[in-house]
Write a structure and sequence with these properties.
The complex is a heterotrimer of chains A (about 600), B (about 350) and C (about 290). Chain A is α/β, with parallel strands linked by helices and about 600 residues long. Chain A is built from 20 helices and 22 strands. Chain B contains 14 helices and no strands. The chains are: A alpha/beta (about 600), B mainly alpha (about 350), C mainly alpha (about 290).
Chain lengths: ~600, ~350, ~290
């Protein structure tokens, strides 16, 4: 089979007010017909620019194609007129987008949007278009096709929307499908289902797929050949097996390293030493949000964001909290820090009952617990200079002279790896990784005993990620800190945490030492969670475990064990009673499979 | 924030439920505000600089007549009782009696309202059509000369003092060119010769329904000049809102997606993208109505258009307070209702999760 | 050294704003015109050829004279030089606009900030009162109040102030609510910063931008409202050289002395246009979305 897509010597630049930046410099990419080719790169590597250029959708005022050729089925896209390219789009090539919510027009039903493609592009009449649309909905495994098609995008779930997007790309009858991070915004457990769908459709329909992602393991599970893109240049390419097992380039090696879980040898020692020094105890903590519509309150209906959570944390350890979006991790942490009013329960930090402290004492106590937020952009006041941001805790909790203050702030900046002079700048002059460092410096300024990190690395690129994690690690030893890390990225948690807690719908399903749980997850949800994420050990899409169903609403959680509707091992008792935590094999699990 | 997929109740019931709740809340809010408005207008009536009794009977009244008037107007009663009377009268549609004509303000308003309504509706329709067209082209040619010109025209249109434009138009089209009439709704000969249909009071509409083409033509000719200064504001505001809203929408991912699916560019611009701007446009039009209501004060008096505006400017001239109050109250309530309707229209927008 | 660095950063920020403002040709024109208007207002007594006409002088022998070298804009029905009157009118319009808008802005924003940050009952009370005021179209409210207080420039200013403050409350409250939810505010809470400090240092500085945009556009709106009130007879009274009043009086002579209506109206138009353009330009620049570029 010949090459369906060939890119040779493509150079693309971006023109800003003052200068010209080169965003793509690709020597050669060749994709055989009917195969799937993966391109792995971080944000800013140029992958989206590539995807847009292939379809002729690159906005040419800022963008500029300097040279090269893109051969689509032996025709050079770059030499075509605007009219010819328009014909190409939706016919020979179509795209599956990253964020299904933002790529569907919110004020039209999904059915209308799908039919429109057929009417405008293929000139079908209305009835035929409707028929074909329903057929396609079935093909992408949407439940209740007719009903679903009459809905608006916001009424569907993330997984359903992504299927619609896939359907729309296929409706164009395209021969080349460019999938731009199709699973980025989905829950990990839904992700597997979508990947499988793409894989099946590719095989059944014989389409060529160009798969773009920032996750190496994801791409390697689905694609035959891959290329690593960094700053617009392909640093390595070849068959998946070759690249993964025999990486030549340094960058590739770093990507592989960050994805593979690492062992932390010292964790056990530290644990035994600090065992009797419990710094935090959480006791039956609950946070219920009453379901409220305008002025009326629905009685007895609550969003049970955190439902009876108890655990304790020893000084000097790192606790990782994992779970999918909406499981209650952030709420848990905000509640135990008393940033949100708890519904019930007690939290004892450093031998003080947090919820019983009076206002003044509470504020004083705050200096011992600091939090680094997820969003490096909005967690820093855009109108404040960095020196005031880092120094705010100092201003609140200590009295210092001006010169002393500046000295202190400068040394903090240097502690986190930023030049001392940078404190006189505004946050927007820094990159995401640097802003996160500023946030960390802020949290360190008053020598806290514990730091909570809420998704500290999810908004930063891979290179910065590893340096931030290393920084955190060294600080921990230096300043004898206790960490709580929340992340949906299991590799981050595995790297940092000594102990972990797995949460589902507001409850803890499994907790214990992280090595033990990572090597041998017991709870069905934990197993599915770890197995639905493509990792280096999983090379085949079929091995991906996707959990059936969607994450249910926390307003009406299932009766009995929360996980029972989606669990493969569901038994009768699971549907009626809630399991309690049992100690099995050095960790605690809440599951009837293990109840004696 | 907690957000999950997969609704439990059948979605249409949930949607209707939520909407009903919103409507109720919005109506309750409206009632509270209405009460506030009435309270304020009542307070204002209490701080009149002139003695209402004296004004009522005129300058040449005797002491007894003034006393009698005072009793008749209920001015000696304690405040809460006056307020209660005021509210009761309002509920019966009684806005008081004009000092000048001694007729019920309500009756006089009733005659004046259709004329103003007609003018405003005309101005809004013309304004929206011009505004959306300008806005779309301005967005389409963003940054180019056409865009700058249109934006300048927009802001220029909004900045023109309406009374000045009205005068200027009169000078040019009547004084110099003699092609359009000086004012009024119909020419005097038409009113004399023909029987004007009176169903809604809006001449254009009535004559359209009854098929009276001669009257229709005359009415249309008369409405041209007053409409122009009035429509400049909504046109400018709608154009600006459409432009900024459209530019925002065009930058959204779903537009790029639609292009990649091969949808026609004109369809994308005029349907897919434009529909997303409707919510904002409706809000903004609702806001302009308040401004237009007051612009009519000025324009109607210049064109002798027998609507609320002329009524109130005459009332101001003679300091006829009940008339002024009546119009104020009426306008405020009208404005409230219009905003309510606008809010409800927006609530039907499928994007808004209420 | 340290304080210098501090100041340097702030200055850089302001310079960036001014630079961005200058990029739009319309805004550049607006800025120049604003300066021009201010200069005229300050220097009116010096520039005007017949300053006494703007106050009380009358020249019955030269009524309604057309444009000439001696009278660039002609004379009115009492023989006064229209050009001089317009120049002096700038003082009235600009000072009214400035004072009224500043007061409305401070009062309104203060209330809005409180409503937005504290929420709950305070929010409900403040907002309901604001809503009631907002449900009167502004000119209407101004007209009613002005007619009650009696026609004069001062009363017109009061009436305008009462009509305009609610917009700032609503605007500020909306901003305060959205800023309150941002992570840096939560971060400040987590640090233990006191409520007052959070409002002052975190919330308010981030709410200022739309308020400034609204204020600059309102300057134009206030000038127009004042002119409209005077046109109706409720604002400035003769012989005050207010632009709207001049157009009103000119109505009677419109067919004979077109210059009497045109030039004062033109003055209103240019002043309002200037501030609208300025506000539009400010909005483009201060909106964080468009600022990134």
């Amino acid at each position: 089979m010949g090459n369906y897509l060939e890119i040779n010597n493509l150079i693309v630049n971006y023109k800003t007010i003052d200068d010209k930046k080169n965003v793509l410099n690709i020597s050669r990419i060749a994709v055989e017909k009917g195969k799937s080719y993966g391109i792995v790169g971080e944000s800013g590597s140029g992958k989206t620019v590539l995807a847009l250029t292939i379809q002729g959708l690159l906005a040419t005022p800022p963008g500029e194609i300097e040279s090269g050729e893109i051969l689509l089925d032996s025709q050079d896209v770059l030499k075509m007129s605007a009219k010819e390219i328009k014909k190409l789009r939706g016919n020979k090539v179509s795209m599956i987008f990253q964020d299904p919510m933002s790529t569907l027009n919110p004020v039209f039903t999904v059915g209308f949007q799908m039919e429109r493609i057929l009417i405008d592009n293929k000139h079908y009449n209305k009835t035929l278009a409707k028929e074909k649309t329903i057929e396609m909905a079935r093909l992408v495994k949407l439940p209740d096709p007719e009903d679903t098609l009459n809905k608006y995008p916001h009424e569907l779930s993330g997984g359903q929307r992504q299927r619609i997007i896939i359907g729309m790309a296929l409706l164009c009858g395209a021969e080349l499908i460019i999938a731009d991070e199709p699973t980025r915004n989905l829950d990990v457990t839904i992700q597997a289902g979508i990947l499988k769908l793409i894989y099946e459709l590719q095989n059944d329909l014989g389409v060529t797929v160009l798969f773009i992602a920032n996750n190496l393991s994801l791409v390697s599970a689905v694609c035959d050949e891959i290329a690593i893109l960094r700053n617009g240049i392909i640093v390595e390419q070849g068959t998946t097996a070759n690249v993964i097992n025999n990486p030549q380039n340094e960058y590739t090696k770093m990507l592989l390293k960050s994805v593979t879980p690492q062992m932390k040898g010292k964790s056990n020692c530290q644990n035994t030493l600090a065992r009797d020094n419990t710094i935090l105890t959480v006791d039956h903590l609950k946070k219920y949000y009453p379901v409220q519509n305008q002025f009326t309150r629905r009685k007895n209906l609550f969003v049970k964001a955190v439902d009876d959570v108890s655990f304790s944390l020893s000084k000097g350890t790192t606790l990782g909290i994992v779970g999918e979006s909406g499981c209650g991790k952030s709420t848990l942490v905000n509640t135990l820090l008393y940033l949100i009013n708890p519904t019930e329960g007690e939290v004892i930090f450093d031998n003080k009952a947090m919820f019983s402290l009076e206002k003044k004492k509470l504020r004083e106590e705050r200096k011992n617990v600091q939090i680094v937020f997820q969003d490096p952009f909005w967690s820093l006041n855009p109108r404040m200079l960095v020196k005031d941001i880092i120094g705010e805790p100092l201003k609140v909790h200590k009295k210092m002279g001006r010169d002393e203050y500046i000295k202190e702030v400068m040394s903090l900046a240097e502690l986190v790896g930023l030049p001392g002079t940078s404190i006189f700048k505004y946050p927007h002059e820094f990159s995401g990784g640097q802003r996160q460092r500023i946030a960390i410096a802020r949290s360190l300024s008053v020598n806290p005993k514990m730091i909570v990190l809420d998704e500290p690395t999810s908004a930063i690129d891979i290179v910065s990620q590893s340096s931030i994690l290393e920084l955190l690690d060294s600080l921990k030893n230096q300043m004898q800190l206790t960490y709580i890390i929340i992340s949906h990225d299991l590799s981050v948690v595995h790297y940092m945490a000594d102990e972990i807690i797995v949460m589902y719908l507001g409850k803890i399903v499994e907790s214990g030492p992280s090595d033990i749980i990572f090597n041998d997850p017991k709870h069905p949800y934990t197993q599915a969670l770890f197995n639905s994420i493509p990792s280096m050990s999983i090379n085949n899409v079929d091995d991906l475990v996707s959990i059936k169903g969607e994450v249910p609403s926390a307003i009406n959680p299932p009766i009995g064990c929360r996980f029972n509707p989606r669990c493969e091992h569901c038994m009768e008792i699971c549907k009626t009673n809630q399991p309690s935590m049992q100690t099995i094999s050095n960790r605690e699990v809440a599951c009837f499979l293990f109840e004696s | 924030m907690v957000g999950y997929g997969g609704a439990k109740a059948p979605p249409c019931i949930e949607k209707v439920d939520k909407m009903r709740r919103y409507i109720i809340k919005r109506l309750m809010l409206g009632v509270v505000i209405l009460f506030g408005i009435i309270l304020i207008t009542f307070t204002l009536t209490q701080v009149l600089p002139a003695d209402p009794a004296q004004k009522w009977v005129g300058d040449k009244a005797t002491e007894e007549q003034i006393e009698a008037a005072r009793k008749a107007l209920g001015l000696d009663d304690p405040l809460p009782k006056q307020f209660l009377n005021y509210v009761i009268k309002l509920l019966h549609g009684n806005l008081g009696y004009s000092f000048q004509t001694h007729r019920m303000v309500t009756d006089e308003l009733k005659e004046a309202i259709p004329a103003t309504m007609e003018l405003i509706i005309m101005a809004i329709i013309v304004g929206i059509i011009i505004g959306i067209t300008f806005g779309v082209y301005s967005a389409k040619y963003k940054g180019r000369l056409a865009d700058h010109i249109i934006r300048f025209i927009n802001i220029g249109g909004i900045s023109l003092p309406s009374f000045w434009t009205a005068l200027a138009l009169q000078i040019v089209f009547y004084g110099i060119l003699h092609i359009l009439p000086l004012g009024g709704r119909l020419s005097t000969d038409i009113t004399v010769l023909y029987n004007i249909p009176h169903i809604t009071g809006m001449i254009i509409f009535d004559s359209l329904i009854t098929g009276n083409w001669i009257i229709l033509k005359d009415a249309l000719v008369h409405i041209i000049l007053p409409t122009i200064p009035l429509c400049l504001y909504p046109a400018g505001v709608v154009a600006r809102m459409t432009r900024s809203s459209l530019l925002e929408v065009l930058g959204e991912d779903y537009i790029m997606a639609e292009r990649s699916y091969g949808i026609k560019e004109s369809f994308i611009l005029w349907h897919y993208a434009l529909k997303n701007t409707m919510g904002a446009t409706v809000t903004v039009v609702a806001l302009t109505i308040g401004y237009m209501l007051t612009s009519t004060f000025l324009i109607e008096s210049i064109f002798s258009w027998p609507g609320i505006g002329k009524y109130i400017s005459d009332a101001i001239m003679s300091l006829d307070y009940p008339a002024i109050m009546g119009v104020t109250l009426f306008s405020a309530v009208m404005y409230l209702l219009l905003n309510l309707i606008a809010d409800l229209i927006i609530a039907m927008d499928p994007r808004i999760r209420v | 050294m340290i304080y210098w660095n501090n100041i340097k950063s702030r200055v850089k920020d302001i310079r960036l704003t001014v630079y961005l403002l200058g990029k739009n040709p319309l805004t550049k024109i607006a800025m120049l015109l604003t300066i021009l208007l201010i200069v005229i207002a300050i220097l009116a007594p010096i520039i005007a050829p017949y300053p006494e006409d703007a106050v009380s002088a009358t020249h019955p022998e030269n009524t309604l004279a057309p444009i000439s070298a001696a009278h660039w804009f002609g004379t009115d029905e009492l023989g006064r030089d229209i050009f001089s009157k317009i120049l002096f009118g700038t003082r009235i319009s600009l000072s009214t606009a400035f004072i009224t808008v500043c007061m409305a802005m401070f009062i309104g924003s203060f209330l809005g900030a409180i409503a937005g940050t504290f929420g709950g009952i305070i929010n409900e009370i403040i907002m309901r009162i604001t809503d009631v005021f907002l449900s009167f179209p502004s000119l209407l409210l101004a007209v009613t109040i002005a007619s009650l207080l009696g026609p004069s420039t001062r009363n017109a200013q009061i009436a305008i102030l009462i009509s305009y403050w609610p917009w700032y409350t609503r605007l500020m409250r909306g901003q305060a609510i959205s800023v309150r939810e941002k992570q840096f505010v939560k971060a400040a809470e987590a640090i233990g910063t006191s409520r007052i400090r959070i409002i002052a240092k975190h919330i308010v500085p981030n709410c200022v931008a739309p308020i400034i945009v609204q204020a600059s556009m309102d300057m134009g709106a206030v000038i127009l409202t004042l002119a409209s009130l005077s046109f109706l007879g409720l604002g400035a009274q003769s012989p005050t050289p207010e632009w709207g009043l001049m157009v009103a009086t000119s109505k009677n002579y419109v067919l004979n002395a077109w210059w009497y209506s045109v030039f004062p109206g033109l003055a209103i138009f240019i002043a309002v246009l200037t501030f609208n353009l300025l506000g539009d330009g400010l909005r483009e620049v201060l909106d964080p979305k468009t600022r990134k570029n």
